[in-house]
Amino acid sequence: MAKRVLAIGIEPGSVDYSAFPQFTPELVRNYIEAQLLRLRGLGFEVTSCLIDFDATAEAAVTAALRDESFDCVVIGAGLREPRERLLLFEKVLNLVHGLAPGAAICFNTTPADTAEAVQRWISP
Predict the structure, then answer these.
(1) Sign for the pseudo-dihedral over CA of 99, 72, 48, 14
(2) Low-confidence stretches of the chain (pLDDT beneath 50)
(3) Which of 9, 23, 29, 22 is nearest to 81 (CA)?
(4) How far is residue 94's CA from residue 110's CA, in Å, rounded to a whole number?
(5) Cα–Cα distance between 124 and 86 in angstroms, integer?
(6) Rounded CA gap, 88 and 92, in Å?
(7) Residues 6+ apart with CB under 8 A from 6
(8) Which helix or strand (DSSP H or E) is residue 5 part of?
(9) CA separation, residue 73 to residues 20, 48, 53, 110, 122 (Å)
(10) How far apart are CA 80 and CA 78, in angstroms?
(11) Residue 9: beta bridge partners?
């Protein structure tokens, strides 16, 4: 049976890209989709959980974690930076820790290296 991965990240359309002029919502969305397809091609079952910055974020992560069990949860770089997102990052991390205690937790550094982050901790 294939290992299951939950990919949690920020909805690309809700990000202010002024500090990252090289990115656009479309480009980030394309990177995310490419990484999800790559993980599937490597033999993983992948569920995407893109969240906004509002009160629905915790509910969306909680629902995703309760709906299925996961072998690994990858948390996107957009949740860890900039500093103003620290509280949201901590909330998501604590939800993962509490609702998926057996899952490995990993972090990508860009929207283009999610597969490498997952592969550091689990194999299909």
Answers:
(1) positive
(2) none
(3) 9
(4) 22
(5) 31
(6) 6
(7) 46, 47, 49, 64, 65, 68, 70, 72, 73, 74, 100, 103
(8) strand 4-10
(9) 25, 10, 19, 16, 10
(10) 6
(11) 50
Residue with structure tokens 């969240």? 51
Structure tokens at 83: 């500093």
Give the angle 16-6-59 at the CA atoms, nearest 5°. Answer: 65
Report the predicted TM-score, pTM, of the whole model to 2 decimal places. 0.92
Q: Could you tell me if 33 and 41 are in contact, meaning their C-beta atoms sit under 8 angstroms apart?
A: no
Please, what is the angle between helix 56-67 and helix 86-99, to 10°? 20
Q: What is the DSSP letter of 3?
A: P
User: Which of 10, 2, 35 is closest to 114 using CA atoms?
Assistant: 35
First-to-last alpha carbon distance for the chain, in angstroms, is 8
Spatial CB neighbours of 43, under 8 Å, sequence gap ≥ 6: 2, 3, 124
pLDDT tens for 76-89 read 988 887 888 899 99
